[in-house]
Structure formats: C-alpha cells, structure tokens
Amino acid sequence: MVSTEAYGTWPSPIDAALTASQDGKPEFVGTVGDEVWWTEPRPAEGGRRALVRRRADGVTGSVLPAPWNPRSRVIEYGGMPWAGAPREEGGPLVVFVHHPDQRLYAYAPDGPDEPWPLTPVSEIGGGLRWVDPQVQLGHGEVWCVLEEFTGESPTDVRRVIAAVPLDGSAAGDRGAVRELTDDRNRFVTGPRLSHDGRRVAWIAWDHPQMPWDGTVVKTAEVTADGTFTGVRPLVGDIDESVVQVEWDRDGSLLFVSDVGGWWELQRIRPDAVTGAVVPTSRLCAVRNEEFGGPLWRIGLRWFQLLDNGLIAVVHGRGTTALGVLDPETGELVDAVGPWTAWSETLAVQDTRVIGIAASPHTSYEVVELDTATGHTRTIGAPHEDAVDPAYYPEPLVRTFTGPGGREIHAHVYPPRHPDRTGPEGELPPYVIWAHGGPTGRTPLVLDLEIAYFTSRGIGVAEVDYGGSTGYGRAYRERLREQWGVVDVEDCAAVALGLAEEGSADRGRLAIRGGSAGGWTTAASLTQTDVYACGAISYPILDLEGWATGETHDFESQYLESLVGPYAEVPERYRERSPVNRTDRLTTPFLLLQGLDDPICPPVQCERFLTAIEGRGIPHAYISFEGEGHGFRRADTVKRALEAELSLYAQAFGIERSDVPRLELRK
Q: Which part of the chain is the Peptidase S9 prolyl oligopeptidase catalytic domain (predicted)?
C-alpha cells in the first residue's frame, strides 16, 4: 500500500554503503587470442582496478592477483593500461602499468612467475609513466606512450612514443628504452601499426589546443629494426579534432574527425612512396550524430574493423548505440538491446564485437554482439539488482530553453518509491547535477548515486550544459571563453524551468558537481540566488592559481579557450573566480576534497575557506587522505554521500535519522 510522506523523508534500502560498493564500472576491453579481457573496479580494496579474463569456455577469473593495480596516470587521466598477446607456448603474455609506481610490468598469467618490471623508476617529478601499450612480439618489444618528467614542476614533462624490451633489460637502464618519435609534439597517442607492418600512425597535438579543439594524424614508415622514418602529418589541424585512427587491410587509414561539425568516420588513402593522398571520404551519410568523443584518456576506441570488412561503431546524439557499418554502402545497423550508453572501448573477435554498455535499468556490463546472427548477450560484469528495481528512478530525456532561446539538454529523474508518494500540493526538492570536464556529458544509465536521492524523495536533474559533448562541435563551443557564464546560466535555466512547470519546489533547489562540475557549482552559488545549498567536490575555485601552475600539464592551458588568454584578460580570471566572489555567497555548502589531487589541488579549497572566514556562512569541509581526483575508495564514497544528504536535509528542512548529522560551521 502506498502511503503519503513528505518528500525527502522516505525510507530507502539504497544506503550509502550499498551505493559505494557498486561504484565504478568495467573499462578497457580487449581480446587476447580467443579470450576477452577487461578491467573492473574494486572499491572495497582501496579502489584498485582488477584485470579480468573470460576464457573461451566462458569461465571468468582474475588475470592479476591483488594488490596489482593496472591503471595509468599519463596526463593524469590515464588511458589503456594493458595489452595482451597470445603465444605458442606458455600461454598469453600481458604487459600492464601498475598504478602505485607507474612502471610497466610483464606477466604470464598461466606461468609460475610473478610479474616482472620492464621499465625503471625515475625520482624526477612525477617519474616515468606509460600508457596505451602495443605488444610487438616480432620485435621483442612493447610500443607505447612514455610520459617523462624532467623537473619538479607539473609542466616539466615530455611525451614520446617509445619501445621497451620485453626481456626486462630496461628495468634498471633508461638507456635501453628506444624513443621512436621526438618530443616536438606536447602530446601523442599510442602507435597503430599497419597490417603489413610497414607503416604506423598516431595522433598528436600541442598547447594551447585540447584534443577536442585540434589534433593532427602523423604517419611514418617502419624499418626492419622497428625505427620510424619519414614522419609526416596526414590529416587534422588546429581547428579539426581527430580522436581515433586505425589502418584497414587495404592500406587505407580510417579516422574520426569533426571537420564537418560532428565527429564522423572517414577514410584516406596515403601513398607510402610519394606521400600523396586521395581526398578523404565519409563512410556514413551525414546524420548529425557523433561517432567519436573527447579524448580525455589515451587509447579510447569508438570504432573497430571486423575481418569481414564491416566496422563496429559507437555513435549517437546524446545517447549512444553500438552499430555495424558497411563502408561500401554506408548502411548502418544498430545492435538490438536495452543499452543507451556505450563506452568508448571496443574489441573484435572473428564476427563478434565486444563493448561495455549500460541502460537506465542496468549498470555497465561487458556485452558481445555476434554480427553474423545479430544476437547480443552479456558476457562479463553482469548487472545484478542489489535492491528491488522499483526503487530505481525513471529518467526523462528533456530539452529546456536557455537565454537567447538556446536548447539545453538534460536528464530528469523525478522522485520514485514503490511505497511512498508526496503529499498533495507539495513539490519535491531537486538537485541539479553539473558534470565534469566541462567537455563531458551525462550518460543515460542506472546510477545508484542518483537512486540514493530519488528513492528518498529528492529529484535529480543532470544537465548537459553548453560545452558538453554529444551534440556536435557548435554545442560544445558555446563554452568558448564563456566558462562560468554559459554553464551557470544553463544549470539555472533547468532548475528554474522545473520549478516554473510545477515539477520542483522553487525554495528547495540545490546544485552539486565535481571537478569542472565543482567549479560550476561554486560559480552558481556565488553568482545566482537560485539554490538553497550546494555540494562542491574537488573543484576549481581560483582561475588565476589554476592558470599559473596549480594544475597538471594536460589542462594547464585549458583556460586559454574556456576563459580567454590569461595575458590578455587577467581581470576576467579574477572576476569569475568563486574565491573572489564570496561576498555574494549566502547559502550553506559542503566542500569535499582528495588530499592527493594533482589536478584540482587542496590549496584551492583552502584559499576559498580563508576567503569566507568570519562571514557566518554555514559550511563543512571534508578532506580524504589517499584520494585523488575523483573518489574510488568505498569508505570515502559512503562518507561523502551521507554528508551530502545531511546537507540537503538541513537546507530543505527535512528530518533524517539514517545518516550522521553533518556539522555545519559558520
């Protein structure tokens, strides 16, 4: 029987401990012979990642025992941390990056030995880091991206493609590492070797461009001893973003470019001798959809070529689907299934495509599509309902109207409970979620953090504000030099739109976000009177500090496009920074920060807290030892969620006894 109870007071079986135990998702799928491998989160094991294998007989197990943790820190966001290769004897070989020391290791999981190191340790700055490995058994090497710190500053860094011997001879000798490219490009991706082994391609870019602004595809010939010669640019520019490149069997190069306003799949045929190229051609009719995304990590794959000439693609507008493209006819057929979000990781095996996908009713799973039959099935990390699905929210895909009539995309999750409803005439409180990036987006998937609130009677609205990806280049470039303006306006427009239409209580609106979403949250609290409170996680709060050495190399010049050239508009940096606008802050807030965060360091929070000292603003600051940019440990996620709920309860006038009361200082 459904009973009436005030919004925000509903009981729920989705507690913070359960939510924390389900945090994270499988990533980085690949094939090794007739096996499928991927990484999985282990929140209860200090947030480590596990490398998992599914054998040909369907048996699934770990490749690496604890405490091995395959996760790279190149550009801090990492990327593909492992590569495997089948061998005629001794079973498969895997090469992986171990997170604690960032060294490359090799391991024969079917053998008796422990993993052995392939690379040395450097004591300079952040040391030596590796990502996107490609095992070259014929050369006895692994080719990958090397990130080498040359000084103590986070921007004292160089990146090259390098070759590391598989015999371990470089473990104590930096000189045994062969550099295959020079460091004239600030950033590079891992190399892609042609099927005949004679050519190689990779993606490069330089500051102040970010990879979604402009990148260049470079190619080279490969000599018998594995040296790259004749390096030359092929496609791309400072205002064209190429995010993936792969060789076809006929020697042509397939790549994803947004030169037409959307990330689309294209083909080019470079001449190996003269360097001349046949003009590029689109492989699919213009659809106003994305066939790629932002290259936040190295080694992402939105498409893969099958042996029969077809191409598996992740594509969509807002939501994403897995499709199979016939490059000769342009016909695109999507896989059948409930999934609304496919990760940017694909692998192929004969006629099968393996990816990672989720839906509004299922968490991320490893999914296999057999292109010969059209049949799809879950083969790894299967979703299991931890509670009755009646407690899960039902999302609404919405488009709101912002300033100037611009469209704003959002996913709205109204409160939902099988046994409770709100009193007649009472409107529910709502929390606006601002995603990170800001060049990110919100996938339409089951998220127990959302269910944690909606099952208690608090609605959630995830906003793909201007600047988000998934809607074409023009949509994401709305944020150019407008960060702290467009994102704030768009979030406010969704919040007020929900209130004006009678879906949300105007007096009980909140906003939350982490990283760039933490910036938008803080900027919203110091620029508008829309919200009753806000939860700010590992944020950017001081643009001047962030632009002058307080972040890592990858994003150290990101503000040049988001805000404007610092040398030309320093006043804009000062005026927009929440740390300089605390005189306008009147609402309670919660500040959450990892103490080991190199991207948004704790000093930003400390400076903000100093600025509000003595102003009588109710607030709480919780910092976490051992956590970096984004929380991975189960106990951290649990405490953060409970603190956030307590903040909302106090700001919205809700009584809850199921979470510790958050002490708000003034």
A: 447-653
